[in-house]
Design goal:
about 30% strand; 2 helices; alpha+beta; three-stranded antiparallel sheet; single chain; Fusion Protein Consisting Of Minor Coat Protein, Glycine Rich Linker, Tola, And A His Tag, Chain: A, Domain 2; 3 strands; about 100 residues
Amino acid sequence: MIGRYRQDVIVAAGRYKTNPRIPGMREIKETTSIVRMVIGTNGLIAAISVVKSGGHEVLDRNAMDMVRKAKPLAQVPPGLKGKEFSVDVPVIYQFKDDG
């Protein structure tokens, strides 16, 4: 159940994906921020945090914002309603070499 919900959040978060411009990103081809979202018994976000940084605060903030926006688009499965649970959502950033 949680795996399916996680996948739904990942797909929904993709709608809000941006690649922020960061000085020095030419050296980095790909990085991942992992956001942990705790869903409370009421079905709302009880807590959200970065459990693995993408290496830049702006990427981590962007990843949390994406997941926060995606939450209403992903329905909590019936088997998880009324329960508190957490889900880790990876947000992968890929950067092209403009050179």
